[in-house]
Amino acid sequence: MLNIGFLNELLNTIAHQGRSLVDRARGLAGDAGRIDTMPLADLAALLLSARGEASGVVIAREIVSRYQRLETAQRHAFLLALNNSFAASPDDIRVAFSIYDSEPNARNHARLLATVEPPRQEVIRRLNLAPGNTGGLVRMREDLLDALPDHPELAALDNDFRHLFSSWFNRGFLVLRRIDWSSPAQILEKIIRYEAVHAIESWDDLRRRIEPADRRCYAFFHPALIDEPLIFVEVALMAERPAAIEPILAEKRDILAGPQATTAVFYSISNCQKGLAGISFGNFLIKQVVEDLRRDIPTLDTFVTLSPVPGFRRWVDAECANRTTTFVSDADRAVLAALDGEENDPEDMEDASRVLLPLLARYFLEARTPSGRVIDPVARFHLGNGARLERLNLFADFSAKGWRDSYAAMVNYLYDLKSIEENHERFATHGEVVASSAVSRALGSRRLHKSDATP
Amino acid sequence: MLNIGFLNELLNTIAHQGRSLVDRARGLAGDAGRIDTMPLADLAALLLSARGEASGVVIAREIVSRYQRLETAQRHAFLLALNNSFAASPDDIRVAFSIYDSEPNARNHARLLATVEPPRQEVIRRLNLAPGNTGGLVRMREDLLDALPDHPELAALDNDFRHLFSSWFNRGFLVLRRIDWSSPAQILEKIIRYEAVHAIESWDDLRRRIEPADRRCYAFFHPALIDEPLIFVEVALMAERPAAIEPILAEKRDILAGPQATTAVFYSISNCQKGLAGISFGNFLIKQVVEDLRRDIPTLDTFVTLSPVPGFRRWVDAECANRTTTFVSDADRAVLAALDGEENDPEDMEDASRVLLPLLARYFLEARTPSGRVIDPVARFHLGNGARLERLNLFADFSAKGWRDSYAAMVNYLYDLKSIEENHERFATHGEVVASSAVSRALGSRRLHKSDATP
Amino acid sequence: MLNIGFLNELLNTIAHQGRSLVDRARGLAGDAGRIDTMPLADLAALLLSARGEASGVVIAREIVSRYQRLETAQRHAFLLALNNSFAASPDDIRVAFSIYDSEPNARNHARLLATVEPPRQEVIRRLNLAPGNTGGLVRMREDLLDALPDHPELAALDNDFRHLFSSWFNRGFLVLRRIDWSSPAQILEKIIRYEAVHAIESWDDLRRRIEPADRRCYAFFHPALIDEPLIFVEVALMAERPAAIEPILAEKRDILAGPQATTAVFYSISNCQKGLAGISFGNFLIKQVVEDLRRDIPTLDTFVTLSPVPGFRRWVDAECANRTTTFVSDADRAVLAALDGEENDPEDMEDASRVLLPLLARYFLEARTPSGRVIDPVARFHLGNGARLERLNLFADFSAKGWRDSYAAMVNYLYDLKSIEENHERFATHGEVVASSAVSRALGSRRLHKSDATP
Amino acid sequence: MLNIGFLNELLNTIAHQGRSLVDRARGLAGDAGRIDTMPLADLAALLLSARGEASGVVIAREIVSRYQRLETAQRHAFLLALNNSFAASPDDIRVAFSIYDSEPNARNHARLLATVEPPRQEVIRRLNLAPGNTGGLVRMREDLLDALPDHPELAALDNDFRHLFSSWFNRGFLVLRRIDWSSPAQILEKIIRYEAVHAIESWDDLRRRIEPADRRCYAFFHPALIDEPLIFVEVALMAERPAAIEPILAEKRDILAGPQATTAVFYSISNCQKGLAGISFGNFLIKQVVEDLRRDIPTLDTFVTLSPVPGFRRWVDAECANRTTTFVSDADRAVLAALDGEENDPEDMEDASRVLLPLLARYFLEARTPSGRVIDPVARFHLGNGARLERLNLFADFSAKGWRDSYAAMVNYLYDLKSIEENHERFATHGEVVASSAVSRALGSRRLHKSDATP
User: Fold this and answer.
1) Subunits touching A (CB < 8 Å, at least 3 pairs)?
2) If pLDDT is split at 50, 70 and 90, which confidence band does D348 have?
3) pLDDT over 70 (residue D454)
4) Distance (Å, rounded) from C-alpha D166 to C-alpha D5?
5) Chain B: residue nearest A170 by CA?
6) Residue D269 belongs to what H/E stretch?
7) CB–CB of B3 and A152 under 8 A?
8) pLDDT in tens, C295-323
């Protein structure tokens, strides 16, 4: 049949490309080539050879398991070899393009695509032949990301990893699992380790977050990485939107009776795999959890976060240092400087509030990076998901980190399923921050205040 | 960081490309665009838009579930729309190539790659966002393969499906499961339906193949397609290499006691998903099963198939019709013609044997297709896996199919782990059919016979 | 401590009792006693000895596995040995009673109890020490029930089995599992085999009963007998109470859309284990399924059976044969006799209906066995569960069995959770058959008819 | 049929007996009796009534869940009510005995047995009707054991619990599960809590005991109590028999490579459920684990414990205080008195060793309780299982507990499958302590020493 021929031709193109690369490996390997003594980069070449077709699983297992026993420098050397020796050939590309250019039909396009795709991608795909290697590849990219600052050329290899991981860790392949006190200890241990927002101090602390009837934790898993959560979210079921984190994490608190729960609060969301940086799951996780909670707990009508504002204080401090800003008056500077003590009396708090609230609103609504983006990364995440900036909470997180990063401020983002699409589009297309009127008013109050303060 | 910027730029390239395609969808959709009334092809465009980022799971679910309710003609229309409206842009490719050509660095290569990759691939990836859609996409490609003869241009879309499926159904993601009498009925039902070599007549027939202690059945599954075996193999544990299929499938037979099993016989291997045609699993399946059986049953030392020879009779008949051949004498023609009756007496059998055996050897060892390949597809599969052609069995399958396809002949291929790599390389590189000396002798006997017969 | 002493003393009583029985076994066993050559009854004695304490699991496994290889006559011999050799000792009972009688305190009562309990019970408990033996013991009782008619003295041993099984198969230990098309084939095979009401003809027939969205099947399992359903019920979800069985079992029928289901119809309930005869599960099964269905399908408001009337025709025929009855007139006899043909024309049906309906009502409401019980065993089961006799359906089951047993009649029993307790009590305490007014009216109609017919 | 009649008669006897007890409940309940306001003891009576037959599950659930919310005093009151109100009736027993005595046939025996069995047992069986209640009943017996010292009459009820639990928790119903780092946290938490020999200090400590490749932990579970281990054993795989506990529990130690493991060391065995006191599992657990380990790890050839000697120091101190003993000389007393300091220099140790070793041997081999039993409870357990006292280890456990209970001594018991039966029989029948010759020699050395010391 015509088309099988077409497909085979294509495969042959890829195979041919690979084969030219494995000449060295062949020479080394010969009939007596023993994979347990061959250098790793040669083994990678062997993977693309005819012998690789016959013994791909064995070679892939050997490469990944030996890689894991290497020192950092050796690992980086292997990654560089992968990056450089398995790139696409410019000459081949030129030839393929010129054929395509003269007759841009489907067949010539397919050949061009096969030529432009770097053989690195096929190496990575074949490294995944051995069951269990997916995890090893994720850790390999973790090394790669560590090496990038010193070896910027690895961006090419990283692009290949990212391309494949986006396909492999596609939402349709992920599985949502609830994490609770009956989950395996080896999973729970990772929840403790990976929690990035409000550190989990101990197994008792963990238990308080997952066992009570008014607490939930959900994670995405990939079937080929079954003991490793990819991302997880911690949820508190409450009777109202929370204005501070302490009551949620408190050791002693009343458990909310089931029917009183009206509000699901996403108070922590953490990525677990550095090697999957840039592959986005959070958006899907939150929406899936909202869907599941709505179905399971019909009394819930509000889905809201309690989120940190990690860039706020750095921005405020920069504004204060900037004598040309119109956002901060000298009086403000004095109030903020006074705050820097350990304890603040109520009067100071009130002063601070008058200064910080409009700054916080401005930080979200008006301040932008030089390239015009919203400054706060957490805001970019939730607004990008289609959430609305719902409420500003001063003095909401008095932990060392909360104070250091954001003068203790936190915010609520609201996930309102009916307006998520529109919110997302306003943010993605026009860069508009969708916020409640209360947030906008907080900004206004500041204008008032500023005009007062600047005669 | 530089590299994040690099990656983002790349994503933007892809997004930009998609966005120009969705202008029509946007016009249609507007704020009030309701996905349940929008044409399917517009929905596919919407998937690539900003709204698709926010609601990809919902849109993907809508497309695949509506597609499944379409008639054949409408399905083909959708596939053609997908094929034609989401192709890569030749103009964009030319621009990207010219930039790359003037400075072939990593960044320009990445941009070229992103431009050459057809947006169809991103559509397919996003169609997979909704859990459960993987199966729908496999069935979509099944439709596509059906449509290909009438619409050869769909080869381009098929290439995209095949590229993605090769990545998604990578060996590392597959799970081997034993199939036995405690397996779910819905899986067993599919084993009955998909068996392609020796049809399973009934549930009782199935039971005879999977329940006895000297029978095994294994299948590969993909986690996102959990109720659908991808490929399965049926195994008989025996005390010797079998020369015929009937004793294996017999209703009444003695069960072999555990310790007597020395030989694992792969007597049937069937692909289950037409939509995964061209994605190869069989090689991995057999090797994994060999590995597992060796570990579980230490008495096993031989791993061999009992395989059909589906192209043999057609080839013999063509040779007979060809008056210029030197392979068949008139005496042979007479013997074969006499065979075509229903029953053959022992003497005829002996004659037939004298004629057929050397022809069978020649069919494997010397006869080739016009393009120089081994004729028999089953042979290509096992030899390509690195197996050896071990024994020729005349009068091994007297079923209607066995007689019609191969004059009742079957063969054994031997999987000898120590020589698989070398066998594969000899076959893949030099086209050499690795065969036992008995097979070669069968060929020789014929030569003798022919020289005898042609004075 | 006092109480430990008390308990130990008790155990010693039991041990002492056992020990006197094992003298023969000891003699045989000695140091060289090999359990694989010892007679089964001696092994049973050995189970109660000191050696039995050390090796109970091994001995129990040996006894049950050897028992299963015995012929029927040998099995009965073993059961008789068990029955006769491990009875309580009348002399010991007399002694224990006289001590108790002179001072009926707790200690003396405990000793009396331990003396009255036959050592057979301890033998059976110890036979259960080996994992997997529970199933063997259930089959042993099946043999025992077969042997009872010829060996009425085995009633004593049967009493011990029944006592232990009531405790072991207590409702609290049973697990309800839904049976559907994803259940293991080995379970489904047993559903086919054990269906006792409306025979399942084939795997396709089974599938029609468990796969469609408007069908359910549930079974009780015991954890120690995990592949064996104990009892199961088949349920049809319908929009109304059914008056006949054929539409439920039809090969071609429309599947009811989810929200239209208002009525759960229990149309078949079958016990699976003959060895558990007399241990009642059906009552618990129906109530649990009602509870589960109510929770899962909120549109359901009616829970009703469609039940056979297995004793009806025999009773009618006996009445007809009885010339002194006042229930049947000669005209009735003629009508019924005319019915006995294969096909009945509508007019005959109408006549038959006039005769049969009041007889059917009377069969439930007035006819009784010599000892005063309701005649129909199915009626006793459902009325004993607290159901109400809701509707009489003539011409509801034209299968051979339906005609032969009940002139094709079936009835509906209604499970109304609010009145179950009261209904049960009226039936259990006063023997009152709780029936709908329609059923009572059917009786009345007959009276009228009879007075008409008897001038 | 005769026998069904026989069985029914028997059931009627039981029911009759129950019914007379529920008269009061009936009066209270009537048609309007609401189970949620009825006193618990009345509910227990209701369980035995006709209404209890119809609604047993509901009533049982109500009783157990309300019981769990009671204060201790109320719980004891309920247990006393159960004990006293549901006892067997002496008058009924006298009648049943006199019938039996005049004609001791099977039927009369059965009736006597049914009359002697206290209705309490049927109450407990019916309390188990509600799924999940088994755990509640185990905790109820825990309360009962707490109440026993103050209410010795509860021994009767305890006898009933024990009788039923022995049947319900029969070995054949228990499931062995390996506990490791992938076990649910709620199970692991209980391992930490219930460890009774060498306390588990933290989750890290737990992890060191179950995660390394040379450590194992196994527990018995009952299917109706699925989150609660009943008993568990911790095992270290080693290359030799250990002489001290510290190296096994050390934070830093080398993990033994798989093939070097020759010895499985049972270094801790703990019962988990106080409410199951007196129901023995340990014997079965150790033997099952030995069987499983032998199958899984063929290099293992030795199965040995490292066990505490909890009664040793109390016995030594009593001997020292006893001026008439011939076991301890004044010189010995001085050595032991010197030991009581915190640290001991090597020379003291040697002296101590000379004194303690023969005392330890004598403690096992010669010292006995007034009733003639071996003093050490751990020794009674292992010797009763058929193990052999293999080696005495002085200075093996310097924990506070080890020193306080046993002057730091520990011992090894050897489980040699070939001699378990014989060992058990020698111990159970003749009270003989089977010990290695090394242990016997340690005794002898003392004799020598003593004779030396006593001119």
Assistant:
1) B, D
2) confident
3) no
4) 30
5) B129
6) strand D263-271
7) yes
8) 999 999 999 999 999 999 999 999 888 87
Q: D175: closest CA among D225, D125, D211?
A: D225
Q: Which residues contact D91 (CB under 8 A, 6 or more apart)?
A: none
Q: Which residues of B touch C (CB under 8 A)?
A: 181-186, 188-189, 203, 207, 227
DSSP SS3 for C2: helix
CA-atom Rg of chain C in angstroms: 27
Residue of chain D with shortest Cα separation from C115:
D113
Nearest CB to D130 within list C88, C172, C420: C172
DSSP output for C357-418: HHHHHHHHHT---TTS--S-HHHHHHHHTT-EEEEEETT---SHHHHHHHTT-EEEEE--GG
Average pLDDT, chain C: 87
Q: How far is A304 from chain D (nearest CA, A)?
A: 29
Identity of the residue in A183, A185, A203 whose CB atom sits nearest the CB atom of D181: A185
Over the stretch C5-51, which tens digit does the pLDDT of each residue have?
444 444 444 444 444 444 434 444 444 457 778 899 999 999 988 67
Record: contact A424-B51, CB cut-off 8 A: yes
- pLDDT (tens digit, 9 = 90+) per residue, D209-229? 999 999 999 999 999 998 899
The predicted structure's pLDDT at residue B21: 41
Confidence of residue C340 (pLDDT cuts 50, 70, 90): low
Could you give the CA distance from residue B307 to residue B286 in angstroms, rounded to a whole number? 13
Residue type, C243: A
C159: which chain D residues are within 8 Å (Cβ-Cβ)? 6-7, 10, 106, 110
**CA-CA distances (angstroms) from residue D396 to A380, D248, D308, D335?**
62, 11, 9, 19
The answer to whether the Cβ–Cβ distance between A182 and D181 falls below 8 Å is no
Q: Is the dihedral angle over the CA atoms A149, A152, A154, A159 positive or is it negative?
A: positive
Average pLDDT over residues A246-272: 93
Alpha-carbon dihedral angle through residues B283, B288, B289, B293, given to the nearest 10 degrees: 150
How near does any CA of chain A get to the CA of B254, in Å?
37
- Please state whether beta strands C263-271 and C302-305 pair in parallel, antiparallel, or not at all (unpaired): parallel
Asked whether the predicted pLDDT for residue B200 surpasses 50, the reply is: yes
Cα C386 to Cα B70: distance, rounded to the nearest angstrom: 51
Q: CA C295, CA B366: separation in Å to the nearest integer?
A: 70
Residue of C nearest to B188 (CA): C185
Which residues in B lie closer than 8 A to residue A174 (C-beta atoms)?
Answer: 131
Residue C24 tokens, joined: 């023969």
Class of residue D298 by CB neighbours under 10 A (exposed 0-12, middle 13-18, buried 19+) = exposed
Chain B CB contacts of C227 below 8 Å: 182
Pairwise CB contact (< 8 Å): A186 & D181: yes
Judge if ipTM > 0.90.
no
Q: Is the pLDDT of residue B444 over 90?
A: no
Q: Do A185 and D188 touch (CB under 8 A)?
A: yes
- CA nearest A305: which of A263, A368, A247, A273? A263
Interface contact flag, C53 D125, Cβ < 8 Å: no
CB < 8 Å to B109, chain A: 87-88, 116, 118, 156
Question: In order of start, what are the domains of chain A with their CATH numbers?
Answer: 2-168 (1.20.140.90), 172-305 (3.40.630.180), 308-453 (3.40.630.150)
Is the pLDDT at B13 greater than 80? The verdict is no
Number of H helices and E strands in chain B, helices first, is 21, 8
The residue ranking higher by pLDDT, A56 or D229, is: D229
pLDDT band of residue D340 (cuts 50, 70, 90) is low
How far is residue B233's CA from residue B210's CA, in Å, rounded to a whole number? Answer: 11
pTM check: above 0.80 = yes
Pairwise pLDDT comparison (D329 vs A206), residue with the higher score? A206
What sign has the CA pseudo-torsion B32, B35, B37, B39? positive
The values of phi and psi at residue C375, to 5°, are -75, -40
DSSP label of C153: G
